[in-house]
Amino acid sequence: MESSFINASLPDVADRMLFAVPKKGRLYDQCLSLLNHIGIEFHRKARHDIALVSNMPIALVFLPAADIATYVAKGNIDLGITGLDIICESQTADDVTELTRLGFGKCKLQVQTPAINSSVTSAHGLVGQRIVTSFVNLTKQRFAELEGVSIDRMKTQVRFVSGSVEAACGLGLADGIVDLVESGDTMRAAGLHAIDTILNTESVLITNHHQRFPKLVETIKQRVEGVLMARRYVLCQYNIKRESLDKACAVASGRQAPTVTSLEAEGWVAVSVMIEKKELADKMDQLKEIGAVDILVLQIANART
What confidence score (pLDDT) does residue 157 get? Predict the structure, then answer.
């Protein structure tokens, strides 16, 4: 589906898939790293928000993360990376297709109130009070739910502020706020604490329901999933007596099944198996206990599922 945005504003990229990534902010560097790992080559000129990819028919469009979901939903952009929180707040979830979650940019959208106000221990305690946030839609949905009424009948006052939301309570503008929390350092420094979680969010790769380049979208999706799998797993190789092979396979079965090769030493086999990084140390200990030797761990640079 082509649009006036594509035809009029970007005449030089009409035959290219438009791929939007955040132009700055907390997701920018991680998005650039991902683009590099999936083999997208480009040079972005200073002060330019469009970069042509040299090895694929793609144009990268650098946009505010808050706008990407809307552009993708309307068909102005073919593919994009943004936060799940942005999709929900912009109310575009029905108009975009989530291709895969990217595992970075993880944080929580939380209701917060001054820590010294010990009488408020849950979001119910802020019903009918003043709330400041940059996530007005999600906040209204949450408090309307708490009040048990429709949004237009709720008593809680929700006001939009675009930045420095955490200062609102200290300045007397609000009784509570709703904001993203990653490490919690900013929240605690402002004397706030979380009393409710509205949404767990992370970066997602999205497209729309009217894909102009379905094969290219699928290629990018597969590449991204391959990088994510490589980040999640390592390749473990070891030797073991064949009589202990079943026990070893029960310890580490891999994504599909281990690769087993006979060795010249009679009764011995070599095994290669993918193991999740978070389980690696325990799995190596268990393999050693049942007789595995020469256990090696290799990093996976890239993969395909």
Answer: 95
